[in-house]
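Bug report

Summary: structure tokens for Protein transport protein SEC23 differ between web form and batch submission.
Environment: batch mode, default settings.
Steps: 1) Submit the sequence below via batch. 2) Compare with the web form result.

Sequence submitted:
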Amino acid sequence: MTEFMDLEAQDGVRMPWNVIPGTKQEASNCVVPVSAIYTPIKAFPVNNNSMPILPYAPLRCRTCRSILNPFSIVDFAAKIWICPFCFQRNHFPPHYASITDDNLPAELFPQYTTIEYEPPGPGEKSSVPPVFMFVVDTCIIEEEMSFLKSALSQAIDLLPDNSLVGLITFGTLVQVHELGGFGQIIPKTYVFKGSKDVSKDQLLEQLNFFIKKPKPSTGVIAGVRDGLSSDTIARFLVPAFDCEFTLNSVLEELQKDPWPVPPDQRSTRCTGTALSIAASLLGACVPGSGARILAFVGGPSTEGPAAIVSKNLSEPIRSHKDLDKDSAPHYHKAVKFYDALSKQLVHQGHVLDLFACALDQVGVAELKVAVEKTGGLVVLSDSFGHAVFKDSVRRVFHSGDYDLGLSSNGIFEINCSKDIKVQGIIGPCASLEKKGPLCSDAVVGQGNTSAWKMCGLDKATSLCLVFEIVKKEIPDATLQSTNNQFYFQFLTYYQHNCGQMRLRVTTLSRRWVAGPGSDLIAGFDQEAAAVVMARLVSFKMEIEAEFDPIRWLDKALIHMCSRFGDYQKDSPSSFSLSPRFSIFPQFMFHLRRSQFVQVFNNSPDETAYFRMILNRENVTNSVVMIQPSLISYSFHSGPEPALLDVAAIAADRILLLDSYFTVVIFHGATIAQWRKAGYHNQPEHQAFAQLLQAPHDDAGVIMKERFPVPRLVICDQHGSQVGSYHNVQQMGGSLWMIVVCYLLSPGKDILGHSPMDARFLLAKLNPSATYNSDAQIPGGDIIFTDDVSFEVFLDHLQRLAVQ
């Protein structure tokens, strides 16, 4: 696995198959598709071999437009280079005249397979600073409003001084705030009806955009160059250093939506109309700039074209069962609205970020298409006062060691060797519909194109590219030995957060082989394969009706083990897997049990949130989501990895579970008793105090590096009403039943340890000891579940694979 991580450290790429099957049939038999997880603007450590930034324009092939790279064949005497993709002979321009074998430009150095260009010139730098449009929900209780105002004030303090800021609030009505009305005693606000969709022309008319400068009779109205005066734009988008006082004054006076709400109804909330007005306003004022809409939503939309539920409380918000039965009356209309909004935002080059904080659903499932296609950030929490929300908002605007490296206006393109086609990308991007010979007829995700728009991207944004091998005949042995390389080139043109336009180029070479030999096995990356399968199964669950994810995963795993395992037919005891494949069944076992596949007891909003994060994270983070990491702390040894199994629980041990979305510190029964007795506060028990502190320090390091910031859960063995919780699940798992179960269980202790929080750990462990088990581990624990353990799963897998 180390060599694959080294390749990722060099190029930001992980591929399941690093030696590629040579024909279409062999690729199909490999089950996991030929694919790549690529992080387009991954941050590389600064050292002698770090990626150089070249201050000149790249040299392109005149036929396929690929860029000069270390795999190009160079004739130094004739000053010609041959493109490895189309074999076109290209002449070097005059400024490459001094090129020799000993005097190479950086792009031909063998170690610089990833390189970045920053061409000089005023045209390469954006004239518009970063733009932030805050869209704030006011249909929330006073306590939540105070939390939200506090978080927004902190965020405004962290904004870059030159950034432009706008504010829209919404509830029953949408209010566009004029922050740049200098000289006005009272800031002006323009009000729009929440139930009515407002067109761009109507918006500009009502905001008085054409008082000083008449409206152009023809053409598209877009920014200062096309029909708008800079003074008019400056009324709604104001530099942060100019409007800080005005904006803070508006926020301080912001009140809960004043319209009365009958006790049997929900608040009237017009989320869709507010986002549509924000998108139209930015499209008119700053098209093509790195603008972000930051939506802070505290409940479900009940008004306007994107309502997800009626105002009547007697109508429940759609569940997974409703979506499966197609009995969610508002769902398809809302998705269609946000799909149209996503196309508008992609055309404008703008990003939609969503911060959803409520105990109920807010419509993340419907908003997913708009957030994902624009490359937006998403944070889901119970409250605006929760640390998950507050810390995540700070991270968005934080600059320093752990900044997100937010960039904008990205365009991603692919070049491949002629025997490979692109099926599509699963990840935060939108198709630019650039059809050509590289496009496969089979489409996965955003397909039928070789170029994609990435309105928003950051240092961690990762794309899953799925390829198709189109070579049908078995290659001749002599040809295979002389020409057995496939080439890939990824081009990412983006606006760096300093405002400069840059082009990052990654060129890869991978060898292909004929037949299922040991070469194919030697190049298998189990972690990357698990992540590709997770993205594929999540994608199929969303688009294919009647799709059975468990059956699909099981068939894929059986087929794979049958093909690559060593065994005697019909002899399960003889079955074994190469070390290159040995952990893959374990990943599939945990993927089957994960929140990406098991939607029971998760709302559609939670499922959409989990999948959006999975689809944008790199391999390392995604593997933690699929199979969480578990670290054990005890007096007997230092911190050490533990098996993700219920057997890891012991009375004299502390466990630290990292499941990406949640970080759990779990104290064994004896440790918990000592802590409650206050032994860690006594000078003679410093070793115990250090043992208690160690997992907190490690959890702090994990949380500091991650976005969204995970939820920290601290709990004790035997402090959880696990039996009650699983009984609730069997009764249907409704939110109210769980709340009632929680309220009837013993309360939190003095340190805030919740009696139900242990479920965050127990739900992730392999249930090797359950209430059905014959023998129990002394000092250990059992899990109240009917799920099969990994041992039973592996036994069934072996029996089916050898048939």
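Above is the batch result. After comparison, the two runs are identical; trailing whitespace caused the diff. The CA atoms of residues 339 and 369 lie 6 Å apart. The mean pLDDT is 87.
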